[in-house]
Amino acid sequence: MGIELYALDGCPYCEKVHDALSEAGVDYETQWVDALHSDRNEVKRVSGQRGVPVLVDDDRGVTMAESEKILQYVDQTLA
């Protein structure tokens, strides 16, 4: 399945992660989420919480939240 990014349109933290993935040449699929936290059931299912961004790397068995951690992961693992 590869890499998926759960993101909210207009979220500056999500945009930073999008930019980092693109700059690193990483192929990924974006799953756009609802603005209402209560409607983010898919995010909660994969990550245990409803905040975004959330990165899911199925190839490595990694799921993580918080943009700074994701940016570090992209830089150290995916780039």
Automatic annotation (TrEMBL):
Q: What is the lineage of its organism?
A: Archaea, Methanobacteriati, Methanobacteriota, Stenosarchaea group, Halobacteria
Q: Which Pfam families does the annotation name?
A: GST_N_3 (PF13417)
**InterPro entries hit by this protein:** GLR_AS, Glutathione_S-Trfase_N, Grx-like_ET, Thioredoxin-like_sf
Q: Which organism is it from?
A: Haloferax marisrubri
**Top-level taxon of the source organism:** Archaea
Q: Which residues form the GST N-terminal domain?
A: 1-79
The name on file for this protein is: NrdH-redoxin
Molecular function, one GO term: electron transfer activity
* A GO BP entry: cell redox homeostasis
